[in-house]
Structure formats: structure tokens, C-alpha cells
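Batch job 17 of 40 flagged for manual review because the log was empty.
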Amino acid sequence: ATRASLGGDVPPENHYEAFTAIGGGLAFDYYLKDDVAISIQPMFVQKGADLVWERKDTELARVGFRSDYLSIPLALKVTQTSRNRMYAHGGLEFNFLLDAKRTENGVTEDFDDGFENFEIGASFGIGGLIAVGNNYIMIEGRYSQGLSSIANKNLTPNDDTTSIKTTGYALIVGWLFQIGGSTP
């Protein structure tokens, strides 16, 4: 589950409102040592927000932006060495745009030309592994911050200074099983 939003340039008296979405993916950890791993986690994620125009606390208009990404986080994960362990990780995310939509006044349209096809971001998080036999339940909290603007020149053709970046929080719950190597 994610809580996604946009940030960056926004006209006065306007703001972005976050939305909640669900995604899914896989995690592959390669342990360099007992307590250090490289983690690759390809996943499907949804990002976006509602851009809200307000005057004197009265909503004048709302435009929703939603985008689907193939996200490939590459992180360094540091763990405790006990069987029920906590871990922290940080790294980069490489996000490839799959689809984008814009909704205004109940009308939804394709918006692929409004966003860049590629975004790079950073993420960090903490989590824990709970042993269940030879497998593990994974619970993790993660924060992601876009480092590159997703605004394509087609988003604001008269103003190429617009910078819009994604942000988000994620609660990740998963079932880990071992394919090879030593116990995590």
C-alpha cells in the first residue's frame, strides 16, 4: 500500500493532495556478508496526486493525475544477525512510466505526453523479518523521493520551468522464501 503525492512548482493558492494505492512486486536479496545485502525489488507502483485550486478555503477546481510505473529499486540492505531481525536500507529507484491519466470534472483522458517516460528517485526504509519455519514474513516502511522532474514540456508548453517530483510512503508486507544460499 502506498500514499503517493506530487511536489514542486504549484501556482499560489493551490496545493497537491495525496492518494492511496496498492502495488505489487518481487524482492531479490543477494547477501554479500551475513548482515549486508544488495536488494533488487522490481514492482508495479502507482503515483500521482490531485491538484486543487482554492480561494479563501473554497475549492474551485480539482485535477487528478495518476501514473503507473514499473519501479526497480536497487538498495543496500543492512540487517541484524539474529533470526528475527530488523533491517534498514537505502538506494535508488529507476521508474519507467507505463501509463498516465488526467481526470477533470469526471472526464479521464490519457496523459502520457504530460509526464516524462523515466524518473529516478531515492528511497530508504526500515523493516523486519519474522521467521515462520524456513520462510519469513517481511514488514517494511519506506519513503521515496523523486530526484528528477516528471513534468514533460507538453505539460506546460508555455513554461518550461515547471518542476514536479513524486513523493510517497509505502507499507510493504510480503512472504519471503529462500531459493539458495545461506539463511538471511
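Reviewer: the log was empty due to a logging misconfiguration, but the result itself is present. The chain has a mean pLDDT of 86. Unflagging and moving on to job 18.
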